[in-house]
Amino acid sequence: MNLDQALDLLKREGYKFTGKREEILRIFAGEKRYMSAKDILELMKPEYPQLSFDTIYRNISLFAELGILEETEWDGERKYRFLCNEVHHHHHLICLTCGKTMHLRACPLDGLLGDPTDFTITGHKFEIYGYCSACGA
Amino acid sequence: MNLDQALDLLKREGYKFTGKREEILRIFAGEKRYMSAKDILELMKPEYPQLSFDTIYRNISLFAELGILEETEWDGERKYRFLCNEVHHHHHLICLTCGKTMHLRACPLDGLLGDPTDFTITGHKFEIYGYCSACGA
DNA sequence: TATCTATATCGGAATTATTCTTATTTAAGA
DNA sequence: TCTTAAATAAGAATAATTCCGATATAGATA
Predict the structure, then answer these.
(1) Where are the alpha helices (DSSP H) in A13-132?
(2) What is the CA radius of gyration of chain A?
(3) Residue B119 pairs with which residues in a beta bridge?
(4) B12-43 b/e with 16+ CB inside 10 Å = b?
(5) Helix B3-12 with B19-30: angle, nearest 10 deg
């Protein structure tokens, strides 16, 4: 996924082009790290002083639904980043301070592949979500 | 971890014994699934009609710090469950409706070990948290 | 057992993230 | 250019969580 692909997808799906949508996407495309709605708002405030939270939330939720952004949450806050579409299956090391990510090409749970030296691991989450038989699909 | 071990740990660490703490722990020990603060409050309301949210939050945070509960979050809500201390390394399938968990003994990312038939997987999260070199430990 | 004190709890206010509502604006097609 | 459905702004509403001041109490001590 890159900026142009994302804009194409929006058009293809019938959504309107707006300067704000482009700018939100441009920010995510430029900073390949997890960011919150507030982060985005603050980055855009200089250019769009009137920008409302609603616009940010509405759009990033839309982008996540369309597969443009990936979503996670920690510290009680939802965070988003531009979708990683590398060919190989991978996962992320996520910095809890700046949201920056690093790729892991293998599953680190069996052997942890010589821990990266430039990242201090404090925890991990490996969870699979869905519905049990009692709760139905 | 079981109820008695948890109560022992509290005493050992110098925390006071209260009926509410015991009851919170009893509930988690009895229901091996993820539950929110509200879930706990509602289960305890009949017995303790005056129970405040503050008490629930304060205690489950404490229990999580002490390693009695494990914590995660989805749908914008923090959820807790009694710590799984099985000998083998494992992870969870988590039902997004009831919070019930099932164990996975292997890393499901390489081959997914014959998907369980009684669980509909809708997504997963495999993330490792910590601090990058720029943000320090 | 009675007293003391740090801790725990209550009740409600404050905070923070997110969603909703209504009026207004605007992108894009006719 | 005109029209209209979609997008936005502004602020209210909601919901999870934390904070705060006053009161209650577990557990230590006399």
Answers:
(1) 19-30, 37-44, 53-65
(2) 17
(3) A132
(4) eeeeeeeeebebbbebbbebebbbbbebbbeb
(5) 140
Cβ(B100)–Cβ(B33) below 8 Å? yes
Across the strands, what pairs with A120?
A: B131
Please give the backbone phi and psi of residue A24, each rounded to the nearest 5 degrees, phi first.
-60, -45
More confident residue, B30 or A93: B30
What sign has the CA pseudo-torsion B98, B101, B107, B112?
A: negative
B113 CB-side CA count, 13 A? 8
Q: Say yes or no for a CB contact (<8 Å) between B96 and A127.
A: no
The answer to whether A127 faces chain B, any CB pair under 8 Å, is: yes
Strands (E), B1-137: 69-74, 77-82, 91-95, 101-104, 119-132
pTM above the 0.85 mark?
yes
B53 CB burial (10 A radius; 0-12, 13-18, 19+): exposed
When computed from its CA atoms, the radius of gyration of chain B, rounded to whole angstroms, is 17
Nearest-10 Cα torsion for A123, A124, A130, A131: -40
Residue A109 has pLDDT above 70, yes or no: no
CB contact under 8 A, A132 and B98: yes
> Among A105-109, A115-119, B16-20, whose mean pLDDT is lowest?
A105-109
**Going by C-beta distance under 8 Å and a sequence separation of 6 or more, which residues neighbour residue A2?**
A29
Give the position of tokens 């142009």: A4
- Calculate the CA A119 to chain-centre distance: 20
**pLDDT the model gives residue A89:** 63
Which nucleotide's C1' atom has the smallest distance to the CA of B50?
C10
Query: Does the CB of B51 fall within 7 Å of any strand C atom?
Result: yes
Q: Answer whether A130 sits within 8 Å of B102, measured CB to CB.
A: no
Q: Count CB-CB contacts under 10 A for residue A81.
A: 20
